[in-house]
């Protein structure tokens, strides 16, 4: 639908399609962040704890890491989608962008977006900040382990 609209120069998207696009963007971006974190943890265990790797990173643990990644991303995406669906929109409904995103939708709302902006900021820190901190920490441990080999 989005590709067809871009090719036909239609600049509109139905409200339901916008919410769907918003949900899947946040869902898949969140899963990506958490799966990258799980991969960094896997590398950390393989390099820094090689003797216990097979017991610590069993298939059960791998499945749990993937399931938790999907669950956290789903919760984040659903929270943002429901929060944006509660806003009232009046006046112009044109977004000067090629897809629906929260800041552009906030500008179109005629109701208060304070809670939505707080959710975006708070959950953004959790969804991006926590994985970055965990990934950097694991890579520091990996680098230290590699340097100790010399």
From TrEMBL:
Family matches, as PROSITE patterns: G_PROTEIN_RECEP_F1_1 (PS00237), G_PROTEIN_RECEP_F1_2 (PS50262)
Keywords linked to the UniProt accession: Cell membrane, G-protein coupled receptor, Membrane, Olfaction, Receptor, Sensory transduction, Transducer, Transmembrane, Transmembrane helix
Record localization: Cell membrane
This protein's GO CC annotations: plasma membrane
Pfam families named in the record: 7tm_4
Membrane topology recorded in Swiss-Prot or TrEMBL: Multi-pass membrane protein
Main location: membrane
Annotated ranges, domain G-protein coupled receptors family 1 profile: 1-150
Transmembrane segments annotated in the record for this chain: 64-87, 118-147
Matching InterPro entries: GPCR_Rhodpsn (IPR000276), GPCR_Rhodpsn_7TM (IPR017452), Olfact_rcpt (IPR000725), Olfactory_GPCR (IPR050516)
Gene Ontology MF: a single term: olfactory receptor activity
Function: Putative odorant or sperm cell receptor.
Full protein name: Olfactory receptor
Protein source organism: Mustela putorius furo
Organismal lineage: Eukaryota, Metazoa, Chordata, Craniata, Vertebrata
């Amino acid at each position: 639908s989005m590709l067809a609209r871009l090719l036909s120069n239609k600049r509109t998207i139905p409200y339901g399609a916008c919410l769907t696009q918003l949900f899947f963007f946040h869902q898949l971006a969140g899963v990506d962040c958490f799966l990258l974190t799980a991969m960094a943890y896997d590398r950390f265990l393989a390099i820094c704890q090689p003797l216990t790797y097979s017991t610590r990173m069993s298939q059960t643990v791998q499945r749990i890491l993937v399931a938790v990644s999907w669950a956290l991303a789903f919760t984040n995406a659903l929270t943002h989608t429901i929060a944006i669906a509660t806003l009232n929109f009046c006046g112009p409904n044109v977004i000067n962008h090629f897809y629906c995103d929260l800041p552009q939708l906030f500008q179109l709302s005629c109701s208060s977006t304070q809670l939505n902006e707080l959710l975006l900021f708070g959950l953004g820190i959790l969804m991006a900040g926590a994985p970055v901190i965990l990934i950097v920490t694991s890579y520091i441990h990996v680098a230290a382990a590699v340097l100790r080999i010399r």
